[in-house]
């Protein structure tokens, strides 16, 4: 069973991408079949669904991770964003499918659209945060009883060599309908998993959460990069903070 978590979440990225996040006040969600784990799409029984699902990757681990700095942020040019849950605009309620639990937010921003077969579909729902499960061998079934969709199984199962990420994910889906009486997401007629034309789309960060963003500089970040990040936080947030890495001057690269 996936673990539902609360509190602060952390996202390792580059200074360049931080600039885009601050300027737009959005977080970019990537289509689930385009993530850097090439094995991941084959883990679930309906891999086609990942071609119409979008994810944003975070961690709830407070301690800084050297592998995460190397892989996603960059030791010298990277940053780590810290935001409190709920991160995104929307109202969070609980949903239950076959004794599994997942947070669902009904998105307010009507600009959340993706393109599919020449049409535009509104992305109504955002799920998470759900902690990723890691195992030696993984086989996941995402279609439950009565043709229901077990949302929290999509994009939250990985092989154990990725365990260092200690990852939590947010998931966005289009073309699935919520049944309030059964408390299930019901699949529309096929091709409900038809591939979207967009590789990504953006979701707005809650304004109050955005303005309290904390950014940690990479362990080998130099003073010029520090000035840039501090200027960005001062310009775009009202109460944002910038801090030095706890690993600064403790590792040699």
Largest sheet properties: 7 strands, antiparallel
Number of helices: 4
**Percent helix among the residues?**
10-25%
Q: How would you classify the helix and strand content by structural class?
A: alpha+beta
Distance between the termini: 39 Å
Overall tally of structural domains: 1
Number of strands: 17
In terms of DSSP E residues, the strand content is: 35-45%
Elements, N to C (H/E): EHEEHEEEEEEEEEEEEHEHE
Show unreliable segments: none
What is the rounded Rg?
18 Å
Strand adjacency order, main sheet: 5-6-9-12-3-2-15
Q: Overview of this structure, please?
A:
The N and C termini lie far apart (about 40 Å). It is globular, with a radius of gyration of 18 Å. The chain contains four helices and 17 strands. A hairpin with a 2-residue loop joins strand 5 (about 90-95) and strand 6. A seven-stranded antiparallel beta sheet has the order 5-6-9-12-3-2-15, with helices on one face. A four-stranded mixed beta sheet has the order 1-4-16-17. It has a two-stranded antiparallel sheet with strand order 7-8. Helix 1 packs parallel to helix 4 (about 225-235). It is α+β, with helices and mostly antiparallel strands and about 250 residues long. It has one domain (about 10-245). The mean pLDDT is about 80. It has helices spanning about 15-25, 65-75, 205-210, 225-235, and strands spanning about 10-15, 25-30, 55-60, 80-85, 90-95, 100-105, 115, 120, 125-130, 135, 155-160, 165-175, 175-180, 185, 200-205, 215, 240-245.
């Amino acid at each position: 069973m996936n673990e539902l978590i609360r509190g602060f979440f952390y996202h390792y990225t580059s200074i360049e991408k931080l600039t885009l996040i601050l300027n737009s006040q959005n977080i970019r969600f990537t289509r689930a079949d385009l993530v850097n784990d090439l094995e991941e799409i084959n883990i679930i029984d309906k891999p086609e669904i990942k071609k119409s699902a979008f994810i944003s990757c975070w961690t709830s681990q407070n301690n800084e991770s050297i592998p995460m700095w190397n892989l996603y942020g960059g030791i010298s040019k990277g940053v780590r964003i810290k935001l409190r849950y709920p991160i995104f605009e929307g109202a969070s309620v609980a949903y239950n499918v076959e004794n599994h639990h997942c947070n669902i937010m009904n998105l307010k921003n009507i600009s959340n659209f993706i393109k599919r077969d020449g049409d535009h579909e509104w992305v109504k729902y955002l799920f998470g945060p759900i902690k990723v499960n890691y195992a030696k061998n993984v086989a996941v079934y995402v279609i439950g009883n009565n043709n229901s969709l077990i949302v929290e199984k999509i994009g939250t199962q990985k092989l154990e060599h990725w365990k260092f990420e200690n990852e939590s994910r947010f998931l966005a889906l289009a073309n699935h309908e919520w049944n309030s009486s059964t408390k299930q997401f019901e699949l529309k007629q096929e091709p409900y998993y038809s591939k979207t034309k967009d590789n990504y789309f953006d979701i707005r960060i809650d304004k109050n959460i955005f303005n309290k963003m904390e950014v940690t500089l990479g362990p080998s970040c130099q003073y010029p990069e520090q000035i840039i990040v501090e200027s960005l936080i001062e310009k775009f947030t009202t109460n944002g903070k910038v801090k030095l890495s706890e690993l600064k001057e403790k590792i040699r690269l």
